[in-house]
Amino acid sequence: MIAPVPADTTSAGARNVIAALLERHTGQQIGAGRAWRIDSALKPLLRAHGLDTLDQLAAGLLRDGDAALKAEVVDALLNQESSFFRDFGVIEQIGIAASQMQAAHPSRRLRLWSAGCSTGQEPLSIAMLLDEMHRDAPAPDICATDVSASAIQRARSGRFSQFEVQRGLAIQRMIRWFEPAGDDWVARPELLARVQFRRHNLVVDPALPGRFDIILCRNVLFYFSPPVRRQVFATLAGALRPGGVIVLGASETVIGQTDLLEPSTAYRGFYQARADTPLRASAHG
Amino acid sequence: MCRVTKTCLVVDDSKVIRKVARHILEGLAFTVREAADGREALDACLAEVPDVVLLDWNMPVMSGMDFLRALRDSDLPTRPKVVFCTTENGMAYIRAAIEAGADEYVMKPFDRETLESKLQLVGMH
């Protein structure tokens, strides 16, 4: 006899409490169409805390305001999907743009910001590529941020599983920039030293100090509501150096989202600040 | 419209691994052929050169490394890409494989994403 499929015992209220917690802490929304993600992402956390249902978790979150538990729930809900050289064509184009910017300002140190870097594969890919392309140029300043404390902690460790290190990373690059550590692979110190990782919330924290030639913010903004997205676009646009560009995910655009950015005239698929966008004053130039 | 599929020769003495690899590769629109050791693989390449070879290291009759050296010494009309796929995950093995002419290297166990990514890296997907 086929066992009956258990009914969904989680109340909509529990999911709403959890989704609201995520939005309050990160600005990210989980719409009704993706509510399933709450259940799947929080399963390990429920087990770890000896809870049977999301309702029990939601009740706990409402009752005692445990900050550590809230942080744990938020962290578990964040999508940390990433891989090396993801969308290789885009990464290559970033390398070309960086070359041209460096050629235009040979003595200047390029500055890049990987906003929403997850566990670090994106900025590390950029660091490897730029090192290979510009051996004689000043080493670029690469800042990488994410709202997830655990993702940043992992990124700083430079430690990746065998599965993670193989996805997108050519074997020649892997043996040049990584070394084995038990079953994992760890980025060599000279690679890790090229990226400054820090926790940063795009919605509530002020922009990073200084201005940037290239800002990557790929597959992050679609989690935000339109007003929050507009606010983040303003933060990013204000952090661009003159001539700088913003790189979004393949399915993301600025069209209809902000008046501060427009398609780049120099680099297809990238975005630049409109001429009338006020640039933030900066001591870092 | 006629679409020419790429061919992959899967060389592994494990029937299970060949079956798993075949399943993944056919899902990626490859035409798959199989060989159980290096000798069989060499014969298969001489009969018809594949676009890419997915190659185990430790096999009876002829190892993956001996096959690769023989393949690179041969005068086949085209140069197939070779992706090692092995449990030999040490740095020395990887360097030796590259030295002998391997284009990519998959450390077992592998999954669909890993294989797909490596095939993209050698321009085969």
TrEMBL record, chain A:
| Gene Ontology MF terms | S-adenosylmethionine-dependent methyltransferase activity
Which residues belong to any copy of the CheR-type methyltransferase domain? Answer: 18-284
Biological process per Gene Ontology, one example term: methylation
| Recorded coiled-coil stretches | none
This protein's source sits in the domain of life called Bacteria
* Signal sequence range: none
The alphabetized UniProt keywords are: Methyltransferase, Transferase
Please name the Pfam families in this protein's record: CheR
Q: Which SMART domains match?
A: MeTrc
- What name goes with this protein? Protein-glutamate O-methyltransferase CheR
Give the species this sequence originates from.
Sphingomonas baiyangensis
UniProtKB/TrEMBL annotation, chain B:
Give UniProt keywords alphabetically: Phosphoprotein
Membrane spanning residue stretches: none
Please cite one Gene Ontology biological process associated with this protein. phosphorelay signal transduction system
Annotated Response regulatory domain ranges read 7-123
Identify residues that carry 4-aspartylphosphate: D56
Determine if Translocase is one of this entry's keywords: no
Asked whether the UniProt record includes RNA-binding among its keywords, one would answer no
* Domain of life of the native organism: Bacteria
| CDD domains for the chain | REC
Q: Which PANTHER family match?
A: TWO-COMPONENT RESPONSE REGULATOR, TWO-COMPONENT RESPONSE REGULATOR ARR22
Name the UniProt record assigns to this protein: Response regulator
At the highest ranks, the source species' classification is: Bacteria, Pseudomonadati, Pseudomonadota, Alphaproteobacteria, Sphingomonadales
